[in-house]
Structure to design on (259 residues):
């Protein structure tokens, strides 16, 4: 299956926008990805192995956090994972 | 340096005026010239601000919109090279919240101050570093391409990072 990598993390995938892995679950796909690109692991996961709060992982069109089986969701070769860090901020000013 | 067409530059600023007194936000598609250290914007994508609970001083882009923009970029041979948002009645400088929520290393974060409904200063900040421990915001110049009728660049209006 294909995993899409956002621009800030492509430095760890030799500039590749997408990485092909063989896996049968979301967790398996992320493990395969970080096995081939070990530096990615600390960017995606906290020290206790949880997905960082600002890292979103989508299985096709669905946020993995809201899938019933979450990272254990079963995948097939035609599925696509997208890693997308969050975008937020603001002036936080005044009122 | 951030390179952008005058049309896209003005569209970002107009977006901030339209959403005033709320913050606007959007995505910058283009290419990164690694050798020159430039982010070259060729298309901007407006996004909705999901922070309806505090839209006057916070913004958040739904991941679904980011994914759609990334897909749009991929099909056009473009990448996400930055983001923009507005600061209603607040300077065009990054805030502690902007910094805490910035995770796209190498990307440009453009901020437009909107004073009383009119766009004022626009500044761009590059997110440097490679992780949460080493990241930092660095002001960068904005080069506004002046395009002729045929779409070719006919001039470049360079701007200091902290002016206008």
């Amino acid at each position: 299956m294909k995993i899409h990598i956002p621009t800030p993390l492509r430095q760890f995938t030799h500039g590749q926008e997408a990485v092909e892995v063989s896996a049968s679950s979301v967790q398996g796909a992320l493990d395969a990805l970080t096995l081939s690109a070990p530096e990615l692991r600390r960017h995606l996961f906290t020290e206790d192995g949880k997905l960082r709060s600002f890292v979103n992982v989508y299985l096709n069109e669905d946020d993995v956090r809201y899938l019933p089986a979450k990272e254990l969701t079963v995948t097939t070769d035609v599925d696509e994972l997208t890693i997308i860090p969050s975008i937020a901020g603001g002036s936080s000013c005044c009122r | 340096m951030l390179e952008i067409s005058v049309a896209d530059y003005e569209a970002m600023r107009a977006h901030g005026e339209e959403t005033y007194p709320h913050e606007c936000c959007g995505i910058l598609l283009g290419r990164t010239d690694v050798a020159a250290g430039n982010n070259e914007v060729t298309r901007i994508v407006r996004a909705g601000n999901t922070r309806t609970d505090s839209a006057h001083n916070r913004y958040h882009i739904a991941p679904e919109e980011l994914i759609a923009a990334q897909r749009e970029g991929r099909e056009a041979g473009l990448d996400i090279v930055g983001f923009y948002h507005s600061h209603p009645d607040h300077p065009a400088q990054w805030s502690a919240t902007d910094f805490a929520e910035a995770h796209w290393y190498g990307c440009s974060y453009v901020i437009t101050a909107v004073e009383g409904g009119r766009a004022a200063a626009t500044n761009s900040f590059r997110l440097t570093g490679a992780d949460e421990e080493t990241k930092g915001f660095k002001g960068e110049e904005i080069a506004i391409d002046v395009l002729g009728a045929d779409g070719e660049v006919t001039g470049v209006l360079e701007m200091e990072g902290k002016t206008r």
